[in-house]
Amino acid sequence: MKRKAWDVYSEVLKAARDLGLEVEEQEVAKALLAWPKERFHVFAARMGLKEKYLRHDLLPVAFLPEPLLEALQRGLPLREAHRLHRLLKGGKLSLQDLKGKDPKALMALPARPGEVDFRLPVWFFPPEPWEEALPLAVAQALIQLYTKEGELVLDPMAGRGTVVEVARALGRRAWGGDIAPRGPLVELTDIRDLPQRFRKEAALVVLHPPTFPAWLKEEGQREEAEERYGEYIRHISSFLDLCRPALALGGRLVLVARPRRTLTSKDLEAGHDFFLAPWERALAEADFRPLRYHLAVSQDGRQDWHLFVGEPRR
């Protein structure tokens, strides 16, 4: 099992102090780095480390700021600690950006500005490998548009936890839950528990329900797909009802949709359920007032995300 960089660093400090370097960490590191090349080589070999790694990666840990030292102890990869330190020295991050954040949130820094231009009618974002997960740039845009630092963001169908990760990186409080969590920041829980967990606290709730094909597969195809589409929309409306009690006064809900791109002959004959209309109807049935609509498309044109923003009618 691979050891954490912090554990290896601690072992190096202990070994150096056993050799008589009974001084503060930075002084220990300075003393080791000042050793003649041959002596340093012997010490590195004794620790089972490559000389270059010890000199250029591990000993510089002594000069990292306190938030990064704390994050290293909690498992932040060493390369990430040095990357963040370079950004800090270059003025692209501040110590405040680093304080109180867990390793996963730190790894999401810096929030990448410019990936989504809010002025455009379509948000273009870089392609990402996980097609079922809300793209990082889109999550960032939503959080920046609809929340302020310190406010609470909830994602009750969080999946990998992208919304939680980005929200924390941007200085918001955030919580994510899922019945099948796929990320370390996501709690195993059902959306039906949401009204008991949070009452009028959230500035933003991001709801990303399963797509119709995914839901149909989970439920079992007992009837023709088109016969069940109305039931699917009612299912989404029930999720919206569960989110309402968690929203603070003035809070917003974002309904994330991946609608169908084609319609069947039955759709055309019946004259209903055209593309985005069912999602708008789901919001209305749950008594949400529609506020805005955003369309996000990947730069390669292969993914499209439809984002309906609403607020509860009071």
UniProtKB/TrEMBL annotation:
Residues 133-180 form the DNA methylase N-4/N-6 domain. GO terms for biological process: methylation. The keyword Glycosyltransferase does not apply. It comes from the Bacteria. Pfam families: N6_N4_Mtase. Keywords: Methyltransferase, Transferase. One of its GO terms (molecular function) is DNA binding. This is DNA methylase N-4/N-6 domain-containing protein.
